[in-house]
Amino acid sequence: MMEEIDEINILNASILGMHRSIEQLSTLPEHIAVDGNKFKPYQEIPHQCVIKGDGKYLNIAAASILAKTYRDEFMAKIHEEYPMYNWKQNKGYPTKQHREAIKKYGITKYHRKSFRLLPEQLSLQLE
């Protein structure tokens, strides 16, 4: 999963995930509503991208809640596997504690390799 995100980037992986989700529906939708400003057409189904759509349309808001709930459960699951990264608390955001764990323990299969995991250290060239 993370390898695919690293290979095609997070935006394309998100769109691919949306396409895969649509493929699994027993009935294809007549219209696709997307929260955000990017989407690639799926078959011949009309779509509309709506920036901040979760605050404007109930169907997008409901999908956003389902996605967040799933993500939170996933982060709790990987926290059990790798508690030193404190994913249960930070939900994958690069907190100071999370960065310290990366320095100490390295990365896991859940870390995106193409993402800057640690800030580059600033240095001055002094003569």
Would you kindly provide a written description of the structure presented here, covering whatever features stand out?
With 127 residues, the protein is mainly α. The protein has a single domain, classed as Ribonuclease H-like superfamily/Ribonuclease H (Nucleotidyltransferase, domain 5), CATH 3.30.420. The protein is built from 5 helices and 2 strands; from the N terminus they run H-H-E-E-H-H-H. It has helices at 2-8, 10-23, 58-81, 87-90, 96-105, and strands at 32-35, 47-50. A two-stranded parallel ribbon has the order 1-2. Helix 1 (2-8) packs across helix 2 (10-23). The longest helix is centred in the middle third of the chain and has 24 residues, at 58-81.
